[in-house]
Amino acid sequence: MLSLKDVEDAAAIVMAAMPPTAQYAWPLLARRTGCEVWVKHENHTPTGAFKVRGGLVYMERLKRERPGLKGVISATRGNHGQSIALAAARAGIAATIVVPHGNSVEKNAAMRAFGAELVEAGHDFDAAKETAMHLADERGLAMVPSFHRDLVRGVATYALELFRAAPVLDTVYVPIGLGSGICATISVRNALGLSTKVVGVVSTEAAAYALSFAAGKVVATNSADTMADGMAVRGPDPEALEIILKGADRIVQVSDAEIGAAMRAYYEDTHQLAEGAGAAALAALLQERERMKGKRVGLVLSGGNIDRPVYLRVLGGAG
Known about the structure:
This protein has helices at about 5-15, 25-35, 50-65, 80-90, 105-115, 125-140, 150-165, 180-190, 210-215, 240-245, 255-270, 275-285, 310-315, and strands at about 25, 35-40, 70-75, 95-100, 115-120, 140-145, 170-175, 195-205, 250-255, 295-300. Helix 11 (about 255-270) crosses helix 12 (about 275-285). The longest helix has 17 residues, at about 150-165. The chain starts with a helix and ends with a helix. The protein is globular and about 55 Å long. Strand 4, helix 5 (about 105-115) and strand 5 (about 115-120) form a beta-alpha-beta unit. By secondary structure, it is an alpha/beta fold.
């Protein structure tokens, strides 16, 4: 999907707004998992999540090609919306973000702080997306999708940083929402000619990509009710699934209880705050501890945006 030049060009755009994020090998995580663990800290970006990279690259191209654009609109559970809000503000473009009712209070506040108009509609991400598409037509706004080549190209810059900075990795675990992270990691792995296995991670309560991977075709679910809102997707993107089918080694399903345990492990072993989706990769590694014993593994800590009351409950043992 992407060449090395595609990603390096994207890196120049991303680095104009933020420095590379760190990747650390944490000794207590190594002791807990039985393997050498390199964590890619995408919780350290200007929005607290990896998606800002894609937003910056997408908006740079949009501004260049459509200088008279009235504004953009997109749907989100939070991290994608923050990325679009920040990138649109940097480009001088008005942004409207649609979120489902009951969305994260603190993510909503962050999107408004970055300058976006926030609209609450629908009971989940897919319903919010339908409203966003309707408003795009009604208001004459450009609809920003949650999966697009430019978004993947921007996100791929974290994979490039990880693969170039860490020792050769046997396996990298990547959480899956709509798929930009895992598709980016697969693309960079291929572009660099590495043999690293890429493993996707989904919630047992939002298992559409796991079901689709097993079936070899798009399989949607009726619900996506998980505490890991960054993975709460009912319908896979066909283009993303095609890349995953060709390039992923497997997809692991983790429960909310496993995700909660991984969030606590991150706090105890690294004192890093991880949201549900951000901890999913560690949850998968802990589930596959015996399989990965003695190997060198990468984990994408994709974000740290979680409301305080939810995080307190998780730290207290819930979830």
